[in-house]
Amino acid sequence: MRLMVPALLLLGGLPGCGSEAGGADPRWAGFNPGPAPAEVHRGEVVFNSYCLSCHGLRGVGAAGAGPALLDTLFAPSRTTDEAIISAMDRGVSQKYFNFGGMPPVQRLTRADAAQVVEYVRWLQRRAGEADSTATPSTEVR
User: Fold this and answer.
1) Three-state SS for 35?
2) Max mean pLDDT range (42-46, 72-76, 100-104, 132-136)
3) Element (H, E) at 55
4) Region 94-119: what's the mean pLDDT?
5) Looking at residue 131, what is its pLDDT?
6) Number of helices (H) and strands (E), helices first, in the chain?
7) What is the dihedral of CA 11, 16, 22, 25, to 10 degrees?
8) Cβ partners under 8 Å of residue 110, min gap 6
9) Are 11 and 102 within 8 A, CB to CB?
10) pLDDT (tens digit per residue) in 20-72
11) Averaged pLDDT score across all residues of the chain
């Protein structure tokens, strides 16, 4: 069965997270999007409960655990919302990063997964705004 592109998305606090070397993404050190607006608050709460341990606070990645969701690989033009939800539901084998595969996120409803996606998309938009003022040496690839 062919798995979808979003390797290692939205895992948190589950076995298998962070089995190989890696690190928090230095491109996003100090990234602070500010307080989440009310419309993505539920997604932030769910993200912090299920995803933070591997994808880091605010999706910046976690040392040895999981990739930054701010990476352009996870941009809406490359990874659809449905692909992210599917990754949370079914898991994804390792493909692009050296963190090991992502197992399914247990006890997460489809509605909660959709809320997480909204929060991640908000983070990505905020990161893009921050990146638009970056110097060429610090731009996201």
Assistant:
1) coil
2) 42-46
3) helix 52-55
4) 91
5) 67
6) 4, 0
7) 10
8) 85, 89
9) yes
10) 334 567 888 889 999 999 999 999 999 999 999 999 999 999 877 889 999 99
11) 80
- What does the block give as tokens for 64? 């040895």
Q: How many residues does the chain have?
A: 141
Q: Domains, the chain, ranges and CATH?
A: 26-132 (1.10.760.10)
In sequence order, which residues have a C-beta less than 8 Å from that of residue 5 and are 6 or more positions away? 73, 78, 79, 83, 95
In single-letter form, the type of residue at position 98 comes to N
Q: Say if CB 65 and CB 17 are below 8 A apart.
A: yes
**Distances from the Cα of 136 to the Cα of 62, 70, 73, 118, 131, angstroms:** 24, 17, 19, 28, 10
Tokens of residue 105, six digits = 């996120």
pLDDT of residue 6: 37
- Residues 6 or more apart from 84 whose CB is under 8 A from it? 6, 9, 10, 74, 113, 116, 117, 120
